[in-house]
Amino acid sequence: MGGVLVAHQPAYLPWPGYFSRLADADELVLLDHVQFSERGWQNRNYIRGNPEPVRMTVPVRRRFGQSIADTQVADGVWAGRHWRSLGQAYGRSPYWPEHREALEAVYRTSWTQLAHLNEALLRLLLDALGLPVPMVRTSDLPPEGRQTDMLINLCRQRGATRLRVGTGALAYLDHRLLAEHAITVEVATYSHPLYGSAPGWRPGLSALDLLLHEGPNALSVLRAGARTETKASA
Question: Would the pLDDT of 1 be above 70?
């Protein structure tokens, strides 16, 4: 395929920064083979509240050391609660009518695997934001190695020459090794622009908030806050 690869864990209703690094990307690799983190964002995120943001958490069955791909949704009660919370938060938002049906279809589905739920919401948001980026799961590949070795192998498998990462990856990436494999590292950061005039906005809300308030302008807001810098090899 060539071009830019972004590797990220499948998150639940992720914030705009997640999507900003996908602008102009050629493929999103969902790292669902890695261990599920109870402190991560794989099964929770925030939507708008008044006055404070509302945290929505998908209950999961926990087993020590389980991967994201193997993490199961615990029950079906959560979906109705989340759907009602979304309606309360965004029922009067200007673009709720446009996206309500597609969102409701996701929340009316009986999900067993957390990763599949997250993937469905990611696809919905990517398409609605105008970012039709292809996705592939690492559990279907699967990749070899860990950390830098894993990312190098992913780039080689997918034919990518540029790897776009967040600042958190800088702590473990071996830039010399990546350079030896002719892989350019792009470091993506995101500064959250203020948008809309409705009360309750806070930085870090789900990208769904941006979509439902800004509609066709949401992608411009994403791009306005995104910065990408090429990292020189050590």
Answer: no
Q: What is the mean pLDDT of residues 170-174?
A: 89
Distance CA 70, CA 65 (A): 10
Residue the block writes with tokens 């020189």:
232
pTM: 0.94
* Burial status of residue 71 (CB atoms within 10 A of its CB: 0-12, 13-18, 19 or more): buried
Domain count, the chain: 1
Please identify which residue in the block is written with the tokens 């470091």: 187
Closest CA to 155 of 137, 139, 143, 173: 143
Our CA angle for 216, 201, 76, nearest 5°, is 80
Tens of pLDDT, residues 117-131: 999 999 999 999 999
Supply the DSSP string of 63-113, one letter for each residue.
-TT-BSTTPEE--SHHHHHHHHHHHHHHTTSTTHHHHHHHHHHHHTS--SB
* DSSP assignments along 23-41, one per residue: TT-SEEEE-TTSBP-TTSS
- pLDDT per residue over 141-155, tens digit each? 888 888 999 999 999
> Residue 15: which domain range?
4-231
The per-residue DSSP string of 148-206 comes to HHHHHHHHHHHT-SEEEE-GGGGGT--HHHHHHTT-EEEEEEE------S-TT--TT--
Question: At 20, phi and psi to the nearest 5?
Answer: -65, -35
